[in-house]
């Protein structure tokens, strides 16, 4: 049983951490999305979103990646950055190893990204979430996010992302 005996630590990810980010994403997706996405779509999207050159480019373009650690165990991550219009940040990725769900750690990562975005001048955070990802939808709603749009985006190879766009004001 995983215990949060030690305080969770959030720290910026460096370029040399990105391969571990991709590996953790692979583990999380295969456990959490197997009821939502086909194996083929998962493989396609993991390569599309987590290939080393993709993560490196995002980091160079100013997307922030932060890692969540318990002691020295890397258990989750978040990525976020500026997004049009000015004053808006987008939460690109927020993932927590499923063995650590139910302890408030996902909300901790979310609050961390919101606070960082606020310090960088953001007054609004937006995100995309798969319409079938009930666990994430509940988490975001509990943390003050509301659905503002429904989108279906063709991502190639016959696959689509069927998402809600959610938003939250970062005032105060």
Q: What order do the helices and strands follow? A: EHHHEEEHEHEE
> Briefly, what CATH class?
Alpha Beta
Per CATH, what is the topology? Aminopeptidase
CATH-scheme architecture? 3-Layer(aba) Sandwich
Spatial shape: globular
Mean pLDDT: 94
Our measurement of the CA-to-CA distance between the termini, rounded to an integer number of angstroms, reads: 37 Å
Number of beta-strand segments: 7
Instruction: Evaluate the radius of gyration.
Output: 15 Å
Detail the poorly predicted runs.
none
Q: Number of folding domains?
A: 1
User: DSSP strand (E) fraction?
Assistant: 35-45%
Count of runs of 4 or more consecutive helical residues: 5
Going by CATH, the homologous superfamily would be Gcn5-related N-acetyltransferase (GNAT)
Give the class from helix and strand content and strand pairing.
alpha+beta
Strand arrangement, major sheet: 1-2-3-4-5-7-6
Q: Percent of residues in helical segments?
A: 25-40%
Largest sheet: 7 strands, mixed
């Amino acid at each position: 049983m995983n215990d949060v005996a030690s305080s969770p630590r959030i720290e910026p990810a460096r370029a040399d951490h990105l391969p571990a980010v991709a590996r953790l994403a692979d583990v999380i997706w295969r456990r959490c999305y197997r009821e939502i996405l086909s194996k083929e779509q998962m493989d396609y999207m993991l390569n599309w979103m987590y290939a080393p050159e993709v993560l490196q480019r995002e980091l160079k373009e100013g997307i922030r990646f932060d890692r969540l650690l318990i002691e020295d165990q890397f258990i989750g991550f978040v990525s976020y950055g500026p997004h049009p219009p000015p004053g808006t940040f987008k939460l690109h990725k927020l993932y927590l190893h499923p063995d650590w769900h139910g302890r408030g750690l996902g909300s901790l990562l979310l609050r961390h990204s919101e606070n960082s975005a606020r310090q960088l001048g953001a007054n609004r955070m937006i995100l995309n979430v798969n319409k079938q990802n009930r666990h994430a939808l509940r988490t975001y709603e509990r943390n003050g996010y509301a659905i503002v749009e429904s989108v279906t985006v063709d991502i190639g190879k016959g696959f689509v992302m069927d998402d809600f766009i959610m938003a939250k004001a970062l005032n105060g």
